């Protein structure tokens, strides 16, 4: 038996309303990103693709609700209409989820370096397992009659899809929280919040589905899933300017006292490291986490942090940042 029409329509209405609000936030975030940052074109293409998929998911839900409220009004199977549209929307959601997770795995790799190579591998592995389970779910949706949509097979693939995606998000979040230190506390908060939001969405969707697959309590969460992934990714990208400014300000404030003390005890053959050099080092650490800039040749300049030392793959003519842990011990000797 289908769920009550009133309950089903109410759930879809509120879920769709919240998803529209989140879509507006996604568009604003994307506008800020494209007008504020001059990243290399693959990253811009990735953001544009995610935004396009996000908008497409909203249009698909509009068509689904239109079919339910207008085209199928009065039908005893009102809640079961538009199975093909639901399958297409599921494909869009799966793509947004796996793309966002792979991007975050790449960021974990850049920050952790070779010492934590196993972590991004695990993130990618569970993301792909979730993607495979999602594709299996879509295939079952297409070939299975609506009366059998709550079969054991459907429950298994739905649980595996949400479970694998949640594990991927948890591993990535824990890894970033462990890697980031107090210098990047603001970024740690962004990362932790991102992990909490998307993981809670995946877990709650699985739990609600298992509690009542025919009652569609999980549907509003599913409607908002693409928006949550896109918004959290864009929020982290747009936070870079604030993080750079904050890192430079903190570096100048915290190190000014040390510089004055060092200057009093420096001998005549030593020059104390300047505030500008210290600020540059601090900004390099922030860039190693989120920033991907371009060199004069158009190739990405990616900063990879390993432990406390930071190296760069940019043009060899650019001097390498000095390891931050040795700031207090560095003096430039003059002849």
UniProtKB/TrEMBL annotation:
Compositionally biased intervals (Polar residues)? 291-316
**InterPro entries named among the record's database cross-references:** DUF6534
What is the superkingdom listed in this entry's lineage? Answer: Eukaryota
Q: Which organism is it from?
A: Rickenella mellea
* Glycosyltransferase keyword on record: no
Where does the chain cross the membrane?
12-33, 45-65, 85-106, 118-143, 163-184, 191-210
User: What name has this protein been given in UniProt?
Assistant: DUF6534 domain-containing protein
Q: Is the keyword rRNA-binding in the record? A: no
Query: What keywords were assigned to this record?
Result: Membrane, Transmembrane, Transmembrane helix
Q: Where is this region: Disordered?
A: 284-335
* Stretches assigned to the DUF6534 domain: 165-241
């Amino acid at each position: 038996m289908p769920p009550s029409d009133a309950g089903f329509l109410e759930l879809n209405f509120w879920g769709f309303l919240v998803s529209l609000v989140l879509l507006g936030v996604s568009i604003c975030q994307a506008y800020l990103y494209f007008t504020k940052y001059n990243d290399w074109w693959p990253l811009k293409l990735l953001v544009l693709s995610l935004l396009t998929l996000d908008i497409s998911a909203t249009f698909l839900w509009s068509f689904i609700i239109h079919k339910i409220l207008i085209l199928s009004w009065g039908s005893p199977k009102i809640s079961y209409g538009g199975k093909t549209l639901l399958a297409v929307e599921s494909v869009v959601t799966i793509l947004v989820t796996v793309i966002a997770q792979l991007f975050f795995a790449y960021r974990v790799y850049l920050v952790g370096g070779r010492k934590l190579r196993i972590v991004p591998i695990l993130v990618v592995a569970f993301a792909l397992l979730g993607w495979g389970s999602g594709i299996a779910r879509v295939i079952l949706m297409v070939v299975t009659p609506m009366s059998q949509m709550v079969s054991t097979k459907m429950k298994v693939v739905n649980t595996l899809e949400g479970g694998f995606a949640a594990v991927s998000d948890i591993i990535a979040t824990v890894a970033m929280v462990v890697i980031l230190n107090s210098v990047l506390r603001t970024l740690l908060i962004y990362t932790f919040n991102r992990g909490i939001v998307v993981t809670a969405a995946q877990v709650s969707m699985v739990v609600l589905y298992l509690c009542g697959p025919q009652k569609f309590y999980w549907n509003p969460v599913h409607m908002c899933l693409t928006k949550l992934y896109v918004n959290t990714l864009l929020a982290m990208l747009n936070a870079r300017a604030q993080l750079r400014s904050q890192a430079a300000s903190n570096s100048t404030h915290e190190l000014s006292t040390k510089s004055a003390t060092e200057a009093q005890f420096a001998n005549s053959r030593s020059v104390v490291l300047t505030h500008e050099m210290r600020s540059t080092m601090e900004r390099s650490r922030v860039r190693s986490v989120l920033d991907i800039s371009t060199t004069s040749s158009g190739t990405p300049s990616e900063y990879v942090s390993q432990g406390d030392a930071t190296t760069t793959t940019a043009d060899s003519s650019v001097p390498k940042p000095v390891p931050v842990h040795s700031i207090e011990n560095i003096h430039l000797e003059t002849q």
